[in-house]
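Priority: medium. Attachment 1 of 2:
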């Protein structure tokens, strides 16, 4: 699963074959078909594993209700810059978001895989929406519809991360925390403390 996800992220889902995945994973093709019926089934399982083992634990920690809501969001944005910089150091390329990259490539071609991408994006957005809801309740930001605000926020984050991948420049993501605060418009008393 890790081999499939890494290859899809580093190259593209459409360009990799089951042989490529088996070679990267160091397994025989027969072993692949013992566990998975198709590359699509493997990718769906790999995304679910990424969510369960990496993203959910990280998001649970970053978005703990014990942390100030605006700090949850800005720290999450700062972690994006750190991750993109780390990936560029390792691979020589800014890789962007593995889920968004895969989603933009396959959602019109593979319904099962597209549905999994949308599901994971929705899960991630719920963390942001919860923080926005808490920020509104604490009057840290202007009253708003949290679902609408998270749609704008996700568009901003995903767009900047994609631009960073296109330009191969992680620095583009460095300003995400301040861009997010501009979008959320914290109350004057709060904006100086975040």
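Attachment 2 of 2:
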């Amino acid at each position: 699963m890790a081999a499939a996800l890494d290859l899809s992220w580093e190259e593209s889902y459409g360009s990799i074959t089951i042989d490529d995945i088996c070679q990267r994973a160091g397994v025989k093709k027969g072993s692949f078909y013992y566990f998975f019926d198709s590359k699509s089934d493997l990718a769906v399982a790999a995304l679910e594993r990424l969510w369960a083992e990496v993203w959910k634990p990280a998001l649970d920690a970053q978005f703990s209700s014990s942390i100030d809501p605006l700090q949850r969001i800005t720290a999450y944005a700062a972690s994006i810059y750190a991750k993109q910089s780390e990936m560029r150091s390792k691979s020589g390329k800014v890789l962007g978001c593995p889920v968004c990259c895969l989603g933009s490539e396959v959602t019109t071609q593979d319904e099962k895989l597209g549905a999994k991408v949308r599901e994971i994006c929705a899960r991630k957005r719920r963390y942001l929406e919860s923080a926005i809801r808490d920020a509104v309740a604490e009057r840290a930001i202007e009253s708003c519809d949290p679902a609408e605000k998270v749609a704008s926020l996700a568009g901003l984050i995903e767009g900047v991360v994609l631009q960073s991948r296109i330009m191969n420049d992680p620095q583009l993501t460095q300003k995400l925390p301040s861009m997010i605060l501009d979008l959320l418009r914290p109350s004057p008393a709060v904006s100086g403390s975040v």
